[in-house]
Structures
1.
Amino acid sequence: MSAEAEREAGAVDAACALFDIPMRPEWRDAAIANLKTVATAARFVAAFPLDDEAEYAPTFRP
Amino acid sequence: MSAGSIAADIRAGRTTARAVTEAALARIEAANGAVNAFTDIVADRALRTAGAVDAGERQGPLAGVPFAVKNLFDIAGLPTRAGSRINRERPPAARDAFLIRRLEAAGAILVGGLNMGEYAYDFTGENCHDGASRNPHDLARMAGGSSGGSGAAVAAGLVPIALGSDTNGSIRVPASFCGLFGLKPTYGRLSRAGTFPFVSSFDHLGPLARSSVDDVALAYDAMQGSDEDDPMQVARPIEPVGPKLATGIEGLRIGIEGGHFARGGVPAAHEAVARIAEALGARQTVEFPEAARARAAAFVITAAEGAALHADRLRTRPQDFDPAVRDRLIAGLAIPAAWVARAQRFRRWYRDRVAELFEGVDVVLAPATPVSAPLLGQTTLDLDGVSVPLRPNLGLYTQPLSFIGLPVLTVPVWPGGTLPIGVQLIAAPWQEELLFRVAFDLELRDSGR
């Protein structure tokens, strides 16, 4: 397993421990793969520069 | 037959609400085995309501029109299953969802609840508990999701109007695959009270209709109204679109989405947009900046909020989820808060840039889906020569729009062959009227076929 995959596997395992999820071995790979997809999306978003003052809208009004 | 025609015939005494309701129930009985649209049929209730309409106790613009709702809407007396195995063990709902009450106050007749992807985390209409909704135009193909039963029921002619929910595209994807009109109003326009949530930041409700955009307008106008039970509803006056339908489109600035929305789909998706653009005389290209990143941010927020909503059920009953949903929700529990906060901050930036663009254009056109209805069970798509996972990519063009709550009306186009595909009409927040005027104009020109 690559270092990146190990990182996401560790995050899934930690989340299951924190939330007391009775993870079965046969579900684990799919959950890790899904977190990897989310991580790719999150890094893409994070690569966009935003000022520190760019707050989000707590009550969203379009 | 359109909802408007049904109501007119009943008003004129050419038929009765009972006869219309009995005919709808008979169609459901005959066809539901094939399309698998309905999970619950409330025949006794529907016939009682029809009796009240015929007795003159219920009147309104939709008097006698049958409709059905995605099964995440509360229907009094039924558990709100939300496409799940777990929720169908809940106690029956004590009252109807707000939008059901509004439609019935306008005389419409609820006939049942509709199949959907589990907990609305879906674009396919497949469901491991209730079976897949099937596309009436080709039963081997997807109806789209997550409002798959809504798309299948309306496209099969079982009811003229159905309600769905749309978090990332779940009204617009089935509308596209099933050849229907589908409205996702502005975020905060219609009350969501009495429906099972998914992602509060993006959840919308709206109607689908087959025959005419006028039917969408009838339903939308009837459902507007303030409701303190939805904390995210925005205080707005009721702004009916029905009286404005025939206003015309002269002077409207209509653009065509470029950039993200011009890439990735099969030729039919872009040909459909070109056909609508030509009919409207649209030439201007508009590019929402960073739309691909907007989609990515919507993906992150969806995964995190969805997981947070279901954390307790994941702890106690993970084996009872649809596997395709469970695996994504477990992953969502591992998402750092910093990723979500970043995505929400980006969301505001994107909203502001898109608002600036709408100073120079009134309505923008974009494909609704990158493909027409895929085969049931299909798991990949070929987009621009690259094989990509099917499930997330069905929302390629819908997700960047619901992300910032823009109103979108999907109109059907038949580019040739037997399968339809949708085009999204997009406007600035609260400008639903413009969408309806454009769609009505297209209908007059018969541009979709």
Note: Chain A has a mean pLDDT of 91.
2.
Amino acid sequence: MIFNLIINLFVLILGSIFHRLPEVTTLPTINGYDIDGALVTGMGDLRTFMTAFWPLQDMFYGFLAIMAYYGIKMLARLFLGHRAPGH
Amino acid sequence: MVTLKRALIGLVIPTTFLIMPAFALANTIVNISPTVSSGKYVDFSTLPEAIHGIDDENYDGGSGGGNPTVTLRGASHVADNVHDLRTNSSGGPFLSNGVYNIDYYNSSKAIGTTGYITFFNDASVGINSLDGVTNFYWFKWEKTASATYTVVAGGIDLTTHIVSFTPLEGAITSNDVTFALHIYINPDDLGTFLGVQIGYQNIDQNYLLSNIPGVTHDQVLFAGQATTSGDFYYTATTTLPDGNYRAQASIKRTLIGTFINPFSHINDTQNHQFVVNQGTYIGNLNQNGFNEFNSILGSTTATSTAASSINCNPLTFAINQCLAFLFIPGGPQLDNSIQSFQDGVATRWPWGYFYRVYSIFANPATNTLPSFTTDIVIGPPGNLATTSLTYDPGDMIAGAGSLLETVHDNQHGKSFREVMEPFVLLVVALMVVFTIFSDITGSHKHHQEQASHKLS
């Protein structure tokens, strides 16, 4: 409960600061190309394949793991700059 | 402090409630509330079968005395206050669920007789026998069938307590909100002041950062003192704007004046937090934080989250469970915090674009793949007879997928997937590890590229 409270206070502080920023609900449309719609449609099609063909699903999870790695790496580079590991 | 303030306010307001007559309660399983007129029946709708003893009880009819007796047609005497209902008015057995007529005998006063008898039988709490009669169903008789009593070990809970109140915890309502309070007051608890109150407050405003002037924050719907025992009902419908709210019902024992007796076992305050149509970010946080504080303090004001805090009760202290309660994150609250973080922080510009991509990836929705149909000429030259050919990739994929799922190894009885998926996962895992490892070590870079790095 104490841990929950700390997290909640942390979220409250962050939320009080940032919740006034505009909320992002969709990706932008650039030069008439709806990136959000394309991504939603593409992922929906991919998941249709994955539900029937489980090896594709396993591979997709692997892909997500690599994406998560690069996401963490990007954050580390953002915060640590040249001191980030692997830089 | 808010609770104290509300109770104080409540006790100043003149008494305006309780129209139910007093009644004697010699047997703790009986609750009889005689009311109005005409029509009375036994509701067996919740029973698996109906072979039941029934405990009736003389009651004080109020308004001038008299002790009218509930007599059940077809019931035979089994023991004191216990009757056997195995035959109904037509002489046949009660063997099926349904609604049955009962007879009613009023010896002296024209007290109303409309009511429901609702039977309870909960073997899990061991109350299916009484006075040697087994397969016994507890019952109450009251004006309305909708109210629900808490069934506790030994019978229906007839201590002074809040039986129920709405809106329920976590409810999402429309703008017309019905506040309904049902309190049971034991006759033995009358004597000194007993304050009853129900109200609500708006909790979706951040009073430090964005207080909205003119919006009512705290509203007392009803406050009064209990002067008679039995059931007390309060119902009101209020139109509220969208947002998060906290309803509070309380019954408090007071001593002299408005001073609340903190040692009374009667003091019972319950909070329900609800949302009218759509909650707000601040309101959800407030709701979440309220539950956490209640858990930490072990307050009796919490209805749904106080249970785990009992581990830190000094009288029944269990250090491991108390520490676990204090430091191990609770699942629902953590989920709420994560949800609040997503709503208030993660979705905000500019990093909200990354979160949107994540949301699309995490969304489990699938698409129906487009199919197409074309006409094909099938006749000889000069004959333009055609047939249509439809290609549905969805069907093909489903067929292939079904084949992968259903092919079995006859010797071990395992499906193709059960046999092969571990290998596929192993290969995928190795590829992930290799990709990350090579990125960290730079082993995938060409020698010239590495050399250029060194030169630079």
Note: The helical segments of chain A are 2-18, 35-52, 54-80.
